[in-house]
Amino acid sequence: MLFGKEHVQRYQETGGREGHDWQGTVTLLLTTTGRKSGESRTTPLIYQKAGDDYVIVASKGGADEHPLWYLNLQADPNVTVQVRDEVFKARARTATAQERPELWAKMAATWPQYDDYQRKTDREIPLVVLERV
Can you tell which superkingdom this protein's organism belongs to (predicted)? Predict the structure, then answer.
């Protein structure tokens, strides 16, 4: 099973033939700019489509703090996304309160552990919408 840096490398090398389909889900690669380092950081994340947009979850397995990639995109919402062999620029934003219930249901249906992660923490786990630019 691919995970972490190996997942990113194989996904990039194969245009997503390896790594896009992961444990019964689909993943994309999100590249953010480090808010402190200024360096590119790429993370594989489970996604779902919502219209023309892509939705990801800043769960960090239910930890009490946000994942670093989410902090990075709060500082700079301009990101690069790879879905299979397609690479494009996008702008990331946190889903609104109005969008959240429907998007959370969609993501939890895809990866039921998200509900478990939310129960483990007092923070509201953010849903991130990636809009092409």
Answer: Bacteria
